[in-house]
C-alpha cells in the first residue's frame, strides 16, 4: 500500500486540466502570471507523485488551442514558463527515467520553445518510466478533424479503404495513437467542463472535479483523487455482476 492506495488499481493514464492559476493569484491581489508560476510547483509535485505511485502516463493540459486568444502578455509569459521548465527540469526528469511527449498543434509554438521541446523529447525518448505527455496548443475537435483529414488522404492515396475505418483505426490517427485512453481525468478550480480536452479518448474516463485551485493541488490532493477513483466501479456499459465475474 502506497499512501492508502491499492497498488492493483492504480490508473494507467491520468489526465489533468490544470485550472485556476488566475483565480489563485487574484485572491492574493497578485498578477495572474504569479498564479502560473506557483502552478509550476504543482506540476513538479504531481509529476513526482504520479511517478512514485506507478502511473504510466500523465497527460497535462498546459495550453489549449483556445488559450492563444488570451492577452498577448499572458501568452508570452506562459511560453516563457514553458521554456524555463524545459530548460531546468529535463535533466532531472531524464535521470528519473521520465519520457517526455507532446500532443497538440505544437508547430504553432514559438520557435525557441519548439526547439527546447524537440530536444527534451529526443533526449528522453527511450526512457521507460512515467510518460509525461504535455498537451500544448491542443484542441480536441482540431485533433479529431486532423485525424479525419489524415484518413481521407490515406484513402485517396489508396493506402486505406473506407470500410477499414473503425473506432480502433480512427484512434491510431490521433496524437495519442499508442497511449491507452485516460482512466481518470482531474479538473481543478471547480469548473465542471471538459474545455475541448481529449474528446475522443475520454469516452469511458472517470471524471474527478475538485474546487482546489491548481497552485494548491499537490501530492496530497493528487493521492485523494486517486483514492476517489479507486472507490468507483467501472462498468463500461455492463452490469455490476459482470464486472465482478
Ligand atoms: C490554468 O489557469 C492555466 C492555463 C489555462 C494556461 P487559468 O489561467 O485558466 O486560471 P483561471 O481559470 O483564470 O483561474
Ligand atoms: C483549460 O482551462 C485549458 C487549460 C487548463 C490549459 P481554461 O481556463 O482555458 O478553460 P475555460 O476557458 O475556463 O473553459
Ligand atoms: Mg481557467
From TrEMBL:
InterPro entries from the UniProt entry: UPP_synth-like, UPP_synth-like_CS, UPP_synth-like_sf
Cofactor notes: Binds 2 magnesium ions per subunit.
Supply the enzyme class, top level: transferase
What residues make up the catalytic site?
A: 19, 67 (proton acceptor)
PROSITE patterns named among the record's database cross-references: UPP_SYNTHASE
Keywords from the named record: Magnesium, Metal-binding, Transferase
Tell me which Gene Ontology terms the entry assigns under biological process: polyprenol biosynthetic process
Superkingdom is Bacteria
Name any cofactors this protein relies on.
Mg(2+)
Q: Which GO terms describe its molecular function?
A: ditrans,polycis-undecaprenyl-diphosphate synthase [(2E,6E)-farnesyl-diphosphate specific] activity; magnesium ion binding; manganese ion binding
Q: Where does substrate bind?
A: 20-24, 32, 36, 64-66, 68, 70, 187, 193-195
- GO CC terms for this protein? cytosol
Q: Specify which residues bind Mg(2+) according to the UniProt entry for this protein.
A: 19, 206
What's the EC number here? 2.5.1.-
Instruction: Please name the NCBIfam families in this protein's record.
Output: PRK14830.1, uppS
- Provide the assembly information: Homodimer.
Known role: Catalyzes the condensation of isopentenyl diphosphate (IPP) with allylic pyrophosphates generating different type of terpenoids.
Q: What protein family does this chain belong to?
A: Belongs to the UPP synthase family.
Question: Which PANTHER family does the entry mention?
Answer: DEHYDRODOLICHYL DIPHOSPHATE SYNTHASE 2, DEHYDRODOLICHYL DIPHOSPHATE SYNTHASE FAMILY MEMBER
* Protein's UniProt name: Isoprenyl transferase
Amino acid at each position: 500500500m502506497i499512501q492508502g492506495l491499492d497498488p492493483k488499481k492504480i490508473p494507467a493514464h491520468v489526465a489533468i486540466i490544470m485550472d485556476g492559476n488566475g483565480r489563485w493569484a487574484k485572491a492574493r491581489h497578485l498578477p495572474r502570471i504569479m498564479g502560473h508560476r506557483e502552478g509550476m510547483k504543482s506540476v513538479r509535485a504531481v509529476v513526482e507523485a504520479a511517478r512514485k505511485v506507478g502511473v504510466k502516463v500523465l497527460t497535462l493540459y498546459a495550453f489549449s488551442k483556445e488559450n492563444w486568444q488570451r492577452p498577448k502578455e499572458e501568452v508570452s509569459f506562459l511560453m516563457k514558463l514553458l521554456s524555463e521548465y524545459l530548460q531546468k527540469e529535463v535533466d532531472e526528469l531524464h535521470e528519473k527515467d521520465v519520457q517526455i511527449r507532446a500532443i497538440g498543434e505544437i508547430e504553432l509554438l514559438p520557435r525557441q520553445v519548439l526547439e527546447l521541446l524537440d530536444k527534451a523529447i529526443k533526449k528522453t525518448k527511450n526512457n521507460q518510466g512515467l510518460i509525461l505527455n504535455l498537451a500544448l496548443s491542443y484542441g480536441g475537435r482540431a485533433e479529431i478533424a486532423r485525424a479525419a483529414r489524415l484518413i481521407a488522404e490515406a484513402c485517396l492515396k489508396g493506402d486505406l479503404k473506407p470500410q477499414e475505418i473503425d473506432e480502433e483505426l480512427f484512434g491510431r490517427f490521433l496524437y495519442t495513437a499508442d497511449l491507452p485512453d485516460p482512466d481518470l481525468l482531474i479538473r481543478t478550480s471547480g469548473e465542471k467542463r471538459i474545455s475541448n480536452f481529449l474528446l475522443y479518448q475520454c469516452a469511458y474516463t472517470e471524471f474527478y472535479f475538485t474546487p482546489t485551485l491548481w497552485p494548491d493541488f499537490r501530492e496530497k490532493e493528487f493521492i485523494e483523487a486517486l483514492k476517489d477513483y479507486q472507490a468507483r466501479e467501472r462498468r463500461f456499459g455492463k452490469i455490476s455482476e459482470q464486472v465482478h465475474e
